[in-house]
Amino acid sequence: MTDVTTGSEVRLRKNTSSEGRLVGAGLATFVLFISVCNLATWNGYAEIVAALVGLVIGVAMLYEAAFGADELWTIALDMIVVEKTRPFGQPNTRFIRREEISGIRINRDKADPTCFRLALQLTSGERLISPQLPEVTHVRETTARIAEQLSFVDIDPPVNPLDATNLEMRIGEPVRKAAGTERRIVALIIAGLCAIRYAYRFWNGAPLTTAEIIFGVAVAVIALLSFRYAHTSAGAFWIVHHGELRVERLTRDGKPIVDTITGSDVATIGLAPDSRAEGELYVVRIDLLSGQKFLSQSIGTKEETQAVSDEIARRLGIAPEGVCR
Fold it and tell me: Of the CATH numbers 2.30.29, 3.40.50, 2.60.120, 3.30.70, which one belongs to the domain with range 76-163?
C-alpha cells in the first residue's frame, strides 16, 4: 500500500501488488483443494460441514485475489473522488460532494492500532470507509487537512501515542511486574502437567523411550528459560521526548530499570523484523556506541515503523549517516 499526500489535496491509496494477488490466489487454491478432497473422502457430518466452510472461505479468498479492487481517495476542496480499479474491469469513479456528507470520523483499527481510516456517513444513510491514512506519525496533521478541505470543524482523531505532534511519543505499554509473575506461574503449571506422565511411569517402574527422554529434557529446559526470563520477555516501554528517549523495562528479578538515551549515545537507528509476532511486523532497533542494543515493542508494517524511526531520529538529533534504511 502506498499513501500519497500532494499539494492541497489529500490522497489515500490502497494497492495490492501482483505478487500479493498471486500469493493470495495460491493460498486460496490450496484451501479449495483440501476442502474438495475432504468432501470426497469424509463421511461424518462435522467433517462435511468443515469442508463446506473451507470451500466458502477458499472461494472468497480467490475472488478477493482475482477481483479485489484497488482504491484511491482524493480529498479536494468540498469534494471526495473515490476511484476503484479491478484487474478485470473498467475503473469506477464516484464523486461525493460536501453537502452529501452528514458526518466524518477517524476510526482506529482494533486489530492494528497503527491503522487509522476515514469513515464517512452520507445523508443517504450509506457509510464508507477509506483506505488507511498515510504515516501513523502524522495522523493529526492529515486529519486537520481533511477537515480544512471538507469544511468540517469537529473531526477529532482517536488517541495516537505515535503522533509526531505529541510532546512525548509512547511505544508499547508500560511494563508490569504482574505480567512476568503470571508467565512464571503458567510455565510452572505447564511443566508440572508434563511431569505427571513421567512421574506415573517412574512410579510403576516403566522404562522411558529415547523420544520421551529427549522430550522431557526439552520441556525442562524451555520451562527453566521461560521462568528465568519471564519478566524480561515483557519487552520495554519507550517514551520519546525531544532530545531524549526513556526506556522502561524489568530485570530478570522483576525490578524496574530505566535507561535514558540521547542522540550522542546512538551509533545507528533502524528497523528489525519482530521475531515474536506473526506476519511482517517490525520494531525499531537502536544500537548504542557502547555496544548495547535496544528493541522497541512491535509497531506495524515496514513503512509505518520507518515513519516512527524517522521521527525518533529527528527528535534525538541523530545524523543522517546513523539512520539505517
Answer: 2.30.29
Task: Give the 3-state secondary structure percentages of the chain, helix then strand then coil, rounded to 5.
Answer: 40, 30, 30
The full DSSP string for 201-256 is HHHTTPPPPHHHHHHHHHHHHHHHHHHHTTTGGG--EEEEETTEEEEEEE-TTS-E
CA angle 60, 64, 68 (to 5 degrees): 150
Query: How would you list the strands of the sheet with 127-132, edge to edge?
Result: 101-108, 116-122, 127-132
Q: Whole-prediction pTM value? A: 0.66
CATH class of 235-322: mainly beta
Let me know: does 272 contact 293? Beta carbons within 8 Å: no
| CB 281, CB 300: distance < 8 Å | yes
| SS3 (DSSP) at 40 | helix
Residue 269 CB-density burial (10 A; 0-12 exposed, 13-18 middle, 19+ buried): buried
Residue 48 CB partners (closer than 8 Å, separation 6+): 39, 42
What are the tens digits of pLDDT across the range 18-71?
A: 777 777 778 888 877 777 776 656 556 666 777 778 788 888 888 777 777 788
92-97 and 237-241 as β-strands: parallel, antiparallel, unpaired?
unpaired
Domain ranges of the chain: 76-163, 179-223, 235-322
Cell numbers describing residue 264: 550522542
Q: Nearest Cα to 240, choosing from 301, 178, 166?
A: 166
